Amino acid sequence: MTDVTVHPPEEAGAFDDEPIAPLSTAPDQAAGEGPPGPRRSPVVALRRGWRQLTSMRTALILLFLLALAAVPGSLIPQRGLNAAKVRQFFTAHPTLAPILDRLSLFDVFAAPWFAAIYLLLFVSLIGCLTPRVRLHIRALRAKPPAAPRRLSRLSSHADFTTDLDPAAAVSAARGVLARRRFRVDVREEAAGAHSVAAEKGYLRETGNLLFHISLVVLLVGIALGGLFGYKGDVLVKEGDGFANIRSSYDDFTPARLFGDRELAPFSFSLKSFHASYQPNGEARTFDADVRYRTSPGGPQRSYDIRVNHPLAIAGVKIYLLGHGYAPHVVVRDPKGHVAFDAAVPFLPRDATFLSDGVIKVPDAQPRQIGFAGFFAPTAAIDPASGMVSAFPGARRPALVLTAYHGNLGLDNGVPQSVFSLDLAKLTQYTDGSGQPLSKLLTPGSTWTLPDGTSITFTGLEQYGTFQVTHDPGKRVALIAAALIVLGLILSLRVRRRRLWVRARPAEGADGGRRTVVEVGGLARTDADSFAEEFDGLVEKMRAATGTAQPNQE
Amino acid sequence: MHLASISNDLFGVTVVVYSLAMLAYAAEFAFVRRPAPLVAGVPAQAAVPARVLVGAGGSDVEEPPAPVVEASSRTPHPWAERIGGIAVGLTVCGWLVHLAEVVTRGVAAGRVPWGNMYEFSSAVALMAVGAFLVLLTRQPVRWLGVFVLLPVVLYLGLAGTVLYVGAGPLVPALNSYWIKIHVVAAITATGTFMVGGVTTVLHLVRRRHDNQVAAGRRPQWAGLAARMPSAQSLDRTTYRLIAFAFPVWTFAVIAGAIWAESAWGRYWGWDPKETWSFITWVLYAAYLHSRSTVAWRKAAPMVALLAFVGMLVNYYVINTVVAGLHSYAF
User: Fold this and answer.
1) B260 — contact with chain A (CB < 8 Å)?
2) Same structural domain for residues B240 and B145?
3) Cα–Cα 20 to 30 A to B7, which of A9, A59, A513, B315?
4) Does A19 contact B278 at a Cβ distance shorter than 8 Å?
5) How many CB atoms lie within 10 A of CB A98?
6) Is residue A272 predicted with pLDDT exceeding 90?
């Protein structure tokens, strides 16, 4: 396949300051050697298609498509970012949403059309790179091209005379160039002339190729993570622990090829959680003080997980994602037996940590009991909306509950959220006039329901939500990213330039000197700074050949 | 704190000094410089056709030497130097006051001075004017002053009025040494792209003018366009700025990904900010590719303009309209 793809390397994306050669990508050029029309053989059609795909034009179009395709991903809610927003969108636009969904617009970055664009782009890239790498390796081994016949036609040009003979003059010039790490090649020419060809800046193309190859490696790194990693979320209350098995997670997303056996056998427990706030309620610090073991029999260590400070265990990282309050309540049945004694996590609704939650008491007698309500860490009364929270810190905690009795629906086999009640078979407690009962509880206070059941708000605990991630492609991606930057800097900053020096015997009495030295140079990029470098080099050569005569240009 | 109000005062002084500098540049540009005379129907500085070299591999085209940016055909008025010098002096003074503003703000807040949109805007503007001043030491681009300072003053005005917040500590997610690395790179790239955006627009104006002259039509905005340097040198300046800023931007995005990995548990998650950084990156990459391709070269400035629009969308629209993980600050 590769012999088909040889086209001028310049069209494949060198970041050159100036365009190099006319493009061979226009349709019907060179590629359509066969007779036109349906009689063309499939091989020719394939070659032609391959040429089209690996052309710069296609690459550019695919780049624009890639940029365009990413736009809806930032405007339409995405499942991977915020599934709740997608559900809201479905409710708000019942006709539009399914159409968008069919077009994968809620999962843009996992959509087949998005994948098609970047995969085509990468195929095009690899198709471009393969011949370019070969050409570049050849160029690295090759000698600089011989001097053009008339150096005076080059934009940078100078000449001077010397008493050295041509061979010695060229040898001196060669020394000047070689010391500046030019690649040099001395040739003997007709009529007693000698010349040296010099070239420098091969790193430009090396960097360019490194950059593009690293992009492919980056994609491999991303794919590794997407195929063999996993991600899980877990809520841990103060004093509780977590062991890394799949059932411990509240939410677990394995990659396509991930097997449960690969879960590292670590465990940790949350000793305490601490949050501090600025007076205006903005968060200042979060600290989750954890104890962990890397294996069941291993030593216990402690670590302070903070935002920007995850815990790394055996290729897995544990992040602090969020936190919240878990009011501790004790429920007693009418006979005074304890039916429930635990801290119950409430989910924060906003930045003030006004939180929602439910308490399920399946062991209550004679009927199951459930409570629903909300919690405010710093309770305040708002005339419009009732109880609100004035501050995220726990200054005046208060719990507002309403109560239900009946069947919680836990035994019917359908998994149930711990943050909501299934009201189907529950009846709300009401007062004599049929109004639902509710009660504001502060720490230490108790609410006794009409049937004698009581609930006591005994204290307040906190919890942290943690994300556990394993991404085996991360290191590959990081190395690729570093090489991408290195390659870019080389390909955009290194200048490629050629220089030729020719010394020939002087014709007649040329100032009494024996040899005329001509220097010519050209830079493919950044001509301005090359002109300076060129003048400097000519100066050095003149010194090296023992000539102080001014430039005759 | 006193220092915070000193910083606010310095901000005001910066805007005033930049505005004065802008007026001086405008005066030099408008009253003193004479438009280049036009040969009938031919733009003053037609592009020199590239010469193909025999024996140099057959694929090397010699880059024509850069034309002198300030066309020599424009007779310098004795006042030109003086007003231009005053403009540059004011810019340097304004830049130093600006630097003091950013530093005092950082000291007042007890942290890096780019923790919210107001501070970020100010730092980007500092970088843009800095990029212009550096460019000034290398190329005679004083004429560019008015076009750089106008958006800078507008940018600062927007920052000082709409985006202003008092000095305060950082939210925990920003509390990382990566804020120094990631954000400094982003500021550098954004500031340079901003100057590149200005030269792109000027290039398009000049090119349009040249095309109209070449077609024998009466050029629009002739007074403005004819005073500018050649389209070719504008194109070259744009390329230099973008070729400098692009690797920095790449680094900023990568540093952001590394930071995201330690803050949010994944290095890339297509958060709106990440998405638009990606879009901007792809568009600037497309600019560099299109500029090195003969068939696409004419379109390159439009691509650069599109990329710059992506940059602006990323900063203003994504930060203020679309909610994402970056919405607390940048």
Assistant:
1) no
2) no
3) B315
4) no
5) 11
6) yes
Whether the CB of B53 is below 8 Å from some CB of chain A: the reply is yes
A chain contacts of residue B172, beta-carbon cutoff 8 Å: 283-286, 306-308
User: Taking CA atoms, what residue in A is nearest to B55?
Assistant: A148
CATH number of the domain where residue A506 is located: 3.30.310.80
With CA atoms as reference, report the closest residue to B65 among A201, A144, A157. A157
Could you tell me which of A220, A289, A227 has the C-alpha nearest to residue A262? A227
**A168 and A131, same structural domain?**
no
Cα separation, A19 vs A58, in Å, equals: 17
The DSSP line for A144-172 is PPPPPS-GGGSSEEEEEEESS-HHHHHHH
The answer to whether residues A424 and A412 touch, using CB atoms and an 8 Å cutoff, is no
Please check whether residue A211 lies inside any domain of the structure. Answer: no
- Given A9, A285, A522, which is nearest B172 (Cβ)? A285
User: pLDDT digit string (tens) for A168-226?
Assistant: 999 999 999 999 999 999 999 888 899 999 999 999 999 999 999 999 999 999 999 88
Chain center to CA of A30 = 40
Q: How many domains does chain A have?
A: 4
Structure tokens at A455: 């609930």
Do A379 and A334 belong to one domain?
Answer: yes
Contacts of A81 in chain B (CB under 8 A): 269-271, 324
CA A32 from chain centre, in angstroms, equals 41
Q: Can you give the pLDDT at residue B63?
A: 41
- Count up the domains in chain B and report the number: 2
On whether any CB of chain A is under 8 Å from the CB of B47, the answer is: no
In chain A, what residues touch B279 (CB-CB under 8 Å)? 67, 70-71
